[in-house]
């Protein structure tokens, strides 16, 4: 029933949009945006960073997507994209899409169901020969996808191993574009083709990304903009100054921290700035397999020593969100309400009491002010990692831990963590979709590539699988909270906070809706227009 | 002299060959390679995928073979493929050269315009307040880190004009490009101008002590004529040399300045490529810089030989 | 090219010198800029050595209430984004600059002297080989060479020292080699040889001391550039990592973001670098005037 409603709403929306006279939106203009760093490539499927998704999502289409006009991504608000409609078989293991006709790739070749199959075959590694991708960071998303079958040019079916309600959400994410069968990986990484509203003209490393309007876009009347110019400016102050000076119409996503916001507002009072969670949480990695933190009581002491408030006050002017793994309400769909959260270890508000308890534990283990435990806190040598690590070190002094910062070159960071060559690490974890499947499978399931800490807990594995197959959302939420509780009690990866940052743009830019629980979604730019 | 030329030429080639080995080996010592970076950028650490990338890029082959391939390509004018962009390295490097070259020339122009006259004035007015102030000024030029100077200029620019000069991709016309490059060029050139001024000064003083100057003076030539006709002309030779050498060595200053002003030249690209472990880019850029330095040294020597007949090249 | 008889120099200049104190005063009067340089350098060294007594705060301790605090009575030079006291960080930063500057200069000097002495003394194949190697090293600008070295070694305090020291070697080696070559033929060296002194002993006892004057001049100049190169490397993120409060690093990331709201984050570390290098340059100029009369201005 819900599906039919979605379909109907989608058609209705398409109808209204197509029929609506162009009275408000203006056609034309070049949107200029600053970019924070050099995207490692243009191939969304191969990368796991907003640096790639934000500029290149506009080149592609998905099968379905989160309604770009809604602030909150939700399974209830998924709209058609290349798929006109979709339906499940009765036991919810076959998901069939009816595809749009008359869609063309940027090189003029027609789009068909085969392209969908090629894309997901490459992602589940069924097509070993596939030259479409060489890296697959979200393999775990599709561990339940068994096969993709082509019914006709306009019909494609995803065969699942078991029911998985989150599957459609993952397909709706900005991370899940449809690639062309006839493309090759090298082109996708440097000058990709898609079916989307904008074509790539040029992608100059460390310099600029130029997109122009796709005149043959299947959605009539879109996009409004003639072109989008991304300019790569690695120095944040130069970027911000450029925005303030009017060189850019928009800042990079979440590029404006709270301390900088005042500055931006002071210099450009008409700037529209919106704060939202970045889908990234700051967390602590603890090496539980080696001394000294192989002792559970020591791990507990460490968790008790953490006072989240100073982290939040310094790094986010108190605007960050407190939560366990899942993004908290009202932004997130799955996080615990405050009262439940505070029952978890490490989230109690009485820091002094917690630290006193931690000191007792430490004393019992033979440490004291004069005989502190000496450790190193490993972190990536990037400011956003280093800053919280410096605060953590400062806090650990309170429980007789004398820590030293061990900044790791970003190139060898994952190697080091995987080798378990650390005792405590400061880490940031981002999530592509606000769904427990992505968050838990990626980071805590023993079979995941991205479970850096190699956290192994059969009980957690079973619970993750159980919630994943649960079709009833309320029941699923209960299991999710149970997992959260167990992870927190186990000190699996203590979360310090969920980051929040600002994105700013000129008031002349209209039609952009920032998604509040998914920075990786909503960057199609087809509804964006410039009022000048 | 012919044999000297040949010898100099062979030495140049030898130096460049040595540099190619040095840079090649040093790069392989850098912890982590492009495969690490690429999988890291995707937030995964799958050894299979890493191995696949390494194989695709030829990183799994013996070092000697990799070196041979690079040098072999170089002699054919083939710089190899950039790892990150997967495009021919020449396509990545070539468009960036003119930008840095223009910046260097403008910086040099700036430093000569400032350095030579002030050096002469300082020498002629030796030990006056003017001399002292100019010397202090030039020393400060040598002491200010150019990235700091750049930041201060940006700060001032925002403060007074509410904007900053950001290098746009295709500057519209010559004047705009000069305008965009002028400030960074001045920032880079400030240091060289200090160096040139100091050298002009000491070289002038040296010449002014020479017998023929004293003779000219005793013959009743005016001070101005002595200073500018006799002394300056003779003092300029070492100055010309230092200008030549500075031209090659300005690259050092460009690295930070291009970063601060976000100019897409070769110097900033080098830092970026080092960060990405993009060996083909780093190797070729380093060789390019070494080539420029060595060639300039050679030309300066030649200029010396032509300009100063006193120098003999017996061996 | 013997070492300068300083006393005779002063007497010739008409000074009535008695005791070291008046000698110092005289020298300072004669070289006012050098004296200023010496004062700056001494202040710098003093600050670095006694940083823990001078700094009012722990340079790494954070304070959420002091984030971006303005310069005032508590935080004399303001506080950074993490609420760390800028004054304390700059004071401790002097340690890093001194350690890297001195470390790199000494290490480069030591290597350069040994290579230069051996090269000039042994001659032959060894000389030829080292000369070519030095050619190679000198075909890259100092910062480029240091950059590649720093990247190859990875960021740490020790590695940064090495990365800066190595590119300094060729100049020192060349200076030592050329004076060794000319000194080798001097009568007093031949005399030493005639009385049967060993070559190594001659090199160390007679040749080396006579190259000291140009070495000291060169060393002072290199100290300045080493400090500048360290600042540049750290600014580019390839030098000293956190938590060490390096002046260059302080200017790089977070500072530059608050150019408008917190200009003190940009101004003070820059002033510290500039003053220090300025001091070494002033001192170096004066030393050159005193020790190397040929270049006297």
Describe what you observe in this structure.
The complex is a heterotrimer of chains A (532), B (315) and C (297). Chain A is an alpha+beta fold and 532 residues long. Chain A has helices spanning 2-19, 50-56, 113-123, 167-172, 185-190, 236-244, 258-267, 296-305, 308-316, 338-341, 351-364, 383-396, 413-418, 436-444, 458-469, 473-489, and strands at 30-35, 64-66, 78-80, 83-88, 94-99, 145-152, 155-160, 198-204, 208-213, 227-232, 272-286, 373-380, 401-408, 424-430, 495-505, 509-510, 529-530. In chain A, strand 8 and strand 9 form a beta hairpin. In chain A, helix 8 packs antiparallel against helix 11 (351-364), helix 14 (436-444) runs antiparallel to helix 15 (458-469) and helix 15 (458-469) runs antiparallel to helix 16 (473-489). Chain B is mostly helical and 315 residues long. Chain B is built from 13 helices and no strands. Chain B has helices at 2-29, 34-41, 47-56, 63-75, 89-93, 97-124, 129-143, 146-161, 174-208, 211-218, 223-261, 266-276, 279-307. With 297 residues, chain C is mainly alpha-helical. Chain C has twelve helices and no strands. The chains are: A alpha+beta (532), B mainly alpha (315), C mainly alpha (297).
Largest interface: B-C, 51 and 46 residues
Q: Mind summarizing the main beta sheet of chain B? A: none
The residue fraction in helices of chain A comes out at: 25-40%
Number of helices of chain A: 16
Low-confidence stretches of chain B: none
Shape of chain A: globular
In whole angstroms, how far apart are the ends of chain B? 9 Å
Report the sheet with the most strands of chain A, covering strand number, pairing sense and barrel closure.
5 strands, mixed
Number-wise, the strands of chain A total 17
Would you tell me the structural class of the helices and strands of chain A? alpha+beta
- Unreliable stretches of chain A (pLDDT < 50, length at least 5) are 1-22
Mean pLDDT of chain B: 84
Fraction of residues of chain B in helices? over 70%
Tell me the Rg of chain B in angstroms: 24 Å
H/E series of chain B, N to C? Answer: HHHHHHHHHHHHH
């Amino acid at each position: 029933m819900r599906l039919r409603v979605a379909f109907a709403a989608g058609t209705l929306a398409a109808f209204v949009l197509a029929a609506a006279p162009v009275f408000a939106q203006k056609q034309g203009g070049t949107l200029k945006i600053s970019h924070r760093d050099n995207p490692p490539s243009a191939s969304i499927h191969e990368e796991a960073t907003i640096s790639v998704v934000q500029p290149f999502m506009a080149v592609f289409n998905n099968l379905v997507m989160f309604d770009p006009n809604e602030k909150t991504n939700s399974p209830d608000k998924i709209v058609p994209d290349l798929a006109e409609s979709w339906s499940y078989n009765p036991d919810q293991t076959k998901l069939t899409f009816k595809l749009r006709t008359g869609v063309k790739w940027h090189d003029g070749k027609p789009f068909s169901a085969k392209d969908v199959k090629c894309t997901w075959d490459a992602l589940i590694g069924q097509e070993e020969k596939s030259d479409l991708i060489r890296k697959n960071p979200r393999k775990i998303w599709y561990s339940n996808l068994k096969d993709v079958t082509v019914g006709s040019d306009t019909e494609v079916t995803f065969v699942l191993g078991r029911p998985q309600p989150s599957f459609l959400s993952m397909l709706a994410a900005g991370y899940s574009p449809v690639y062309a069968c006839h493309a090759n990986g090298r082109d996708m990484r440097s000058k990709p083709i898609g079916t989307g509203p904008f074509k790539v003209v040029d992608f100059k490393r460390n310099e600029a990304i130029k997109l122009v309007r796709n005149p043959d876009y299947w959605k009539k009347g879109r996009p409004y903009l003639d072109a989008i110019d991304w300019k790569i400016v690695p120095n944040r102050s130069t970027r911000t100054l450029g925005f303030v000076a009017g060189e850019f119409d928009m800042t990079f996503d979440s590029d404006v921290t709270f301390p900088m916001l005042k500055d931006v507002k002071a210099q450009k009072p008409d700037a529209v700035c919106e704060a939202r969670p970045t889908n990234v949480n700051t967390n602590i990695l603890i090496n539980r397999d080696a001394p000294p933190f192989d002792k559970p009581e020591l791990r507990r002491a460490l968790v008790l020593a953490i006072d989240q408030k100073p982290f939040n006050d310094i790094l986010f002017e108190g605007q960050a969100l407190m939560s366990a793994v899942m993004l908290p309400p009202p932004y997130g769909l799955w996080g615990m309400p405050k009262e439940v959260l505070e029952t978890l270890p490490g989230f109690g508000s009485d820091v002094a009491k917690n630290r006193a308890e931690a000191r007792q534990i430490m004393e019992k283990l033979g440490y004291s002010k004069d005989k502190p435990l000496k450790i190193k806190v490993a972190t990536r040598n990037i400011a956003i990692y280093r800053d919280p690590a410096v605060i953590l070190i400062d806090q650990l002094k309170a429980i007789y831990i004398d820590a030293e910062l061990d900044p790791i070159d970003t190139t060898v960071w994952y190697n080091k963590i995987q080798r378990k060559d650390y005792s405590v690490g400061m880490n940031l974890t981002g999530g592509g979709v606000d769904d427990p499947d992505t968050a838990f499978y990626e980071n805590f399931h023993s079979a995941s590539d991205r479970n850096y800490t190699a956290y192994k807990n059969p009980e957690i594995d079973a619970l993750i699988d159980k919630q994943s197959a649960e079709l009833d959302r309320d029941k699923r939420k209960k299991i999710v909270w149970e997992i959260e509780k167990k992870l927190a009690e186990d000190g699996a990866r203590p979360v310090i906070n969920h980051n929040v940052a600002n994105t700013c743009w000129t008031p002349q830019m209209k039609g952009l809706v920032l998604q509040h629980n998914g920075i990786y979604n909503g960057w199609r730019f087809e509804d964006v227009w410039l009022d000048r | 002299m012919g044999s000297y030329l040949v010898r100099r030429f062979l030495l140049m080639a030898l130096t460049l060959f040595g540099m190619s080995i040095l840079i090649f080996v040093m790069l392989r010592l850098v912890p982590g390679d492009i495969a690490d970076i690429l999988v890291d950028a995707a937030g995964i650490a799958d050894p299979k995928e890493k191995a696949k990338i390494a194989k695709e890029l030829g990183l799994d082959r013996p070092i000697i073979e990799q070196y041979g391939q690079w040098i072999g390509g170089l002699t054919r004018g083939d710089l190899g493929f950039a790892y990150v962009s997967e495009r021919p390295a020449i396509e990545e490097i070539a468009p960036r050269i003119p930008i840095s070259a223009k910046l260097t020339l403008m910086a040099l122009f700036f430093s000569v315009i400032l350095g030579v006259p002030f050096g002469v004035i300082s020498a002629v007015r030796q030990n006056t307040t003017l001399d002292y102030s100019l010397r202090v000024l030039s020393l400060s030029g040598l002491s200010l880190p150019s990235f700091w100077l750049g930041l201060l200029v940006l700060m001032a620019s925002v403060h007074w004009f509410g904007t900053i000069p950001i290098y746009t991709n295709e500057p519209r016309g010559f004047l705009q490009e000069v305008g965009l490059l002028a400030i960074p060029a001045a920032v880079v050139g400030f240091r060289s101008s200090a160096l040139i001024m100091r050298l002009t000064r000491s070289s002038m003083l040296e010449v002014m002590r020479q017998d023929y100057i004293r003779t000219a003076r005793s013959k009743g030539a005016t001070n101005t004529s002595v200073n500018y006709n006799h002394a300056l002309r003779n003092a300029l030779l070492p100055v010309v040399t230092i200008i030549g050498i500075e031209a090659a060595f300005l690259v050092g200053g460009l690295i930070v300045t291009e970063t601060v002003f976000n100019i897409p030249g070769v110097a900033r690209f080098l830092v970026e490529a080092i960060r990405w472990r993009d060996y083909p880019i780093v190797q070729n850029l380093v060789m390019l810089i070494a080539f420029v330095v060595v060639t300039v040294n050679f030309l300066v020597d030649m200029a010396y030989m032509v300009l100063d007949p006193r120098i003999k090249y017996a061996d | 090219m013997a070492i300068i008889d300083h006393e005779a120099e002063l007497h010739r200049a008409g000074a009535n010198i008695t005791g070291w104190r008046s000698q110092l005063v005289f020298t300072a009067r004669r070289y006012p800029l050098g004296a200023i340089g010496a004062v700056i350098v001494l202040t710098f060294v003093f600050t670095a050595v006694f940083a823990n007594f001078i700094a009012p705060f722990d340079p790494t301790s954070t304070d959420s209430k002091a984030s971006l605090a303005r310069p005032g009575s508590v935080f004399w030079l303001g506080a950074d984004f993490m609420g760390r006291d800028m004054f304390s960080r700059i004071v401790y930063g002097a340690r890093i600059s001194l350690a890297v500057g001195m470390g790199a200069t000494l290490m480069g000097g030591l290597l350069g002297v040994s290579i230069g002495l051996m090269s000039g003394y042994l001659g032959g194949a060894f000389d030829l080989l080292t000369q070519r190697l030095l050619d190679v090293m000198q075909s890259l600008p100092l910062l480029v060479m240091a950059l590649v070295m720093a990247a190859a070694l990875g960021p740490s305090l020790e590695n940064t020292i090495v990365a800066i020291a190595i590119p300094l070697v060729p100049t020192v080696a060349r200076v030592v080699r050329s004076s060794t070559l000319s000194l080798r033929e001097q009568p007093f060296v031949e005399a030493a040889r005639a009385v049967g002194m060993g070559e190594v002993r001659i090199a160390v006892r007679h040749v080396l001391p006579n190259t000291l004057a140009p070495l000291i001049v060169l060393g002072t100049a290199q100290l300045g550039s080493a400090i500048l190169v360290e600042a540049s490397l750290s600014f580019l993120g390839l030098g000293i990592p956190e938590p060490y409060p390096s002046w260059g690093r302080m200017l790089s990331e977070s500072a530059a973001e608050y150019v408008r709201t917190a200009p003190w984050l940009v101004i003070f570390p820059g002033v510290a670098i500039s003053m220090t290098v300025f001091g070494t340059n002033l001192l170096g100029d004066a030393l050159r005037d005193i020790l190397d009369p040929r270049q006297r201005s």
